[in-house]
Amino acid sequence: MSEIISIAEHGPDWKRMGRAIQYLSEHYLEQPRLEDAAECVGLSPFHFQRLFTRYVGVSPKNFVGHLTLDHAKHELAAGQSVLGAALDAGLSGPSRLHDLCLKIEAMTPGDYARGGEGVVIDYGFADCPFGIALIMATEKGVCGLAFGDENDDDSMMDDMRARWPRAAYRENKSRAEKIARQIFEAAGGDLPLHLIGTPWQIKVWQALLEIPSGKVTTYRTIAEKVHSAKASRAVGTAVGRNPISWLIPCHRVLGSDGGLHGYHWGLTRKRSMLALEAARQDNPKTSAIA
User: Fold this and answer.
1) Considering the domain boundaries, does residue 100 fall inside one?
2) What's the pTM value of the predicted model, to 2 decimals?
3) Is residue 122 in some structural domain?
4) Which of 40, 101, 128, 250 is the catalytic position?
5) Mind listing the pLDDT tens digit for each residue in 37-71?
6) 218, part of any domain
């Protein structure tokens, strides 16, 4: 296991690595040189290579090597069969994501219908490998995880507030940073999630939780498991409304052709997430982030 990096103590370097991931994800078809990526974040090639591998868990070359749709297509069949077996075994109980044990609790349909009225949501922003993370949590657990770039704070908040318009919001930076460390560092442990959605949305989100890291599936496959193949469009809508991105891995869902078709926080970010998970599957001993 590589040395664990603290987001709180090394904020500037986290921002650099986030920019590097975005740069590589946007330019991978050009096979960017190490020198080009290093220059993008203002570091020497040697220093960049060392920091990227230490923070992200894989080398820049390895990361670029997995930034292809071919890898996702290659894994598609395995991802479908694994998902099917997991769903057939039932969706009850905690689901594991890396070293995190996710404890799931869902809001009642009546509470959701009231737009979150009576619910207090803490929120805060933190740097992460995918840019800026907006983390939201009720007293019962994490209810929101959104991603953006610098100067996107207001639009990210507006997006998440619109989901629960009657909830009370209070800034809690320390709690958000604590959650961020647990999500993006190799801390492990229990992480409660508080799902706030319709019964149908929650059913789809639970199906997403069963897709293993490094694997992918399709909207149609999920639809077949939770309802019927004809529900693919409804599944796609529910996937798009997932409020806890990354932890509930909607980025692992592809179109029926194996291609990337939409991601609420941007296709570049979706491609980055898939590539990072795939690279870590091939290099499990080097992973520095849960």
Assistant:
1) yes
2) 0.83
3) yes
4) 250
5) 999 999 999 999 999 988 888 899 989 888 877 77
6) yes
